[in-house]
Amino acid sequence: xAKEKHRPAFFRAGGVDQLVLRxxxxxxxxxxxxxxxxxxxxxxxxxxxxxxxLLEMLDTDHDGRIRPPEVKEAVTWAGKVFKSLDLLLxxxxxxxxxxxxxxDPDGKAVLSGAKRILRDRSKADAKEITLDDVVAMTELFxxxxxxxxxxxxxxxxxxxxxxxxxxxxxxxxxxxxDRSGKEGIDKTKVExxxxxxxxMLAWDxxxxxxxxxxxxxxxxxxxxxxxxxxxxxxDYFTRCRIAAFDAxxxxxxxxxxxxLAALSPMALSDKSADVAKLPLGKVEANRALPLDAxxxxxxxxxxxxxxxxxxKPVLGAKPSLTEGDWRAVTAKVDAFRAWRGTKPSxxxxxxxxxxLRALVEGGFEDKLLELxxxxxxxxxxxxxxxxxxxxxxxRVSLARFLRNFVSFADFYGGRRATFQAGHxxxxxxxxxLVLFVADxxxxxxxxxxxxxxxxxxxxVRGADKKGIVAAYTAGDTDNLMVGRNGVFYDNDGxxxxxxITSIVENPISIRQAFWTPYKRLVxxxxxxxxxxxxxxxxESSADVDAMAAKTANADAAAPAAAGAPAPGPAKPGAxxxxxxxxxxxxxxxxxxxxxxxxxxGLIFATFVDMGYWLPLGLLALxxxxxxxSMLIAWLKLRKRNLGPILDANGWAVNALAKIxxxxxxxxxxxxxxxxxxxxxxxxxxxxxxxxWKLYLFLFVVAALAIAWLVGRLDPYLPTAGKAAxxxxxxxxxxxxxxxxAPGAGSAAPAAPAK
Length: 754
Prior knowledge:
The protein is an alpha+beta fold. Among the domains are: about 10-145 and about 385-410, no CATH class; about 215-345, no CATH class; about 420-510 and about 665-670, no CATH class. Helix content is about 50%, strand content about 10%. The protein has 26 helices and 20 strands. The strands form 6 sheets. The chain has an 8-stranded antiparallel sheet. The relative contact order is 0.09.
């Protein structure tokens, strides 16, 4: 009968279908789950609130990141070790021995290792094993001489000679860290060292062959002296041969007039590089090189060393060097120079030849390899110990990791996700969506695309300093600004001082967006009023300063005015001059006031004309003002998602993990009184209440009065109360003419006929 195919279940959250981990079968099914359905495809091994040892175990390639193949490998291994993966979803830290699958080789090895640990811990009858048991044994093994990792530190050697050999190999070849953290060497380093040591010794033995050290112990010094001047002496004799070939060559091969002229203004010495470039001596056909007088001063010291260390041992002391002498000397050291040029360039060559010979001939290679083999023989035992620890850590934390990688079940389920660093308390709110960040500026470039309102803070606790980013998803932004302080609690409960360093502004809610235009208007008015007030204050200060200066210099101005003729007495009956009133200014002010009144009257009359539709008119006006801001907020809140925030921290989020308004509200908690708390409302320091009801009443009365004056209320009033009637608008411009008196201005009516 074919095995029934597992049917996974999904839940909808953040606009994404996410895997439900209900049973061990759901965990095992991750191996075959299409990666397009995974919420994340990579995450870093640091900055995540989960067991760091577990993350190291999952990161099998040790590159600092965890990817799907490593997760699948972990799930597959856990499926071999445990009889049922349901254990990973159960609460608890202990692993029952009966839960290990003894029928599988991997499970059997872990079970055997667990029993040995319990036996060594004097708990042979225990039915379960905990992480504390493994950690205790690991600490114990750190103190042992050998620990099964194939790396032997100095302390692993029992004799002083062997310890010295380990030290020498480490100094030449470098070292490795063993399980205990100590530095040591392994088989590869030992084999490489002794291979190089043998090659160095073979090269050294070749230097003792016949003809190599023709001058005995003086050969090396002679070879060094020859090497120091070889190119320059060859150059000199070549120039002399050219002069012998053609007489004109003597002048051409010598120092030119231009070269010597260029040296004349310089401050020269026998160390000058420009002098050293000149020929070694005077160039003539077949001329010997003088070893004292007539020698280029920049080469005199090196030539003197050559004469003493190389020429003298071969040909004796001579005042000059012929080309034949030069060939004879070089012939004596050519073999030595050729041998020395074949010296291997090995790290082992940093040790003295005698020490290398002692190590090789003393059989220390075999001794070190035996010590390493003895250590490596315990590898199986220690690997079992490591696998037991791995199994226990998988049992405790692997399911939680999967709920925060394959899906974001913890995040959307109200549990703390692994990437959430703690709680930030600032501005009467607490934020749950807080992440550690290493570089706020770099993080903000990508995280800003999340359309979330992000607050970056530096957190400090003693000498420790870190960076965090918090997403504000409820409340308003009026009191959030750079420099404000708060307190951050990490997942371990430690408190940190938090200071806002930067903010990425985005809408928090549509309600906040509704009031944004009005708040912006008030802020602009406040800024303009403050600016005008500052300007007026400067003008007033300038006037006060001028008045003070005038008063201080009043005594100096009095004598100057003494010579001026005094004004004559006023003529009797003459009117006293008065300050003139600027009629134009008064008219302008009147026109402005009338215009403002008319404008307000038209506005209020327009609303009055709406009758019962007045509330809708006011609502339409407010919406017209706030609609653009609300529309932008609505569009951004629809796009608000977690992906860019995590991606900026090194994750690879594989879905559009939305943070809608209801869910976002649950991530930021506003201040509220505890349930059942009482509150006294008589605040002794409360500011005096503004009589806003009176102001509103007066405002309405004024509006109605203006509307009545301009006749907007006439359609709704009786004839006697209309503005046209009261103010006699529409009456005849002049009263009807009275009947003329008899005989005045017209003929008398004719008498009736009889």
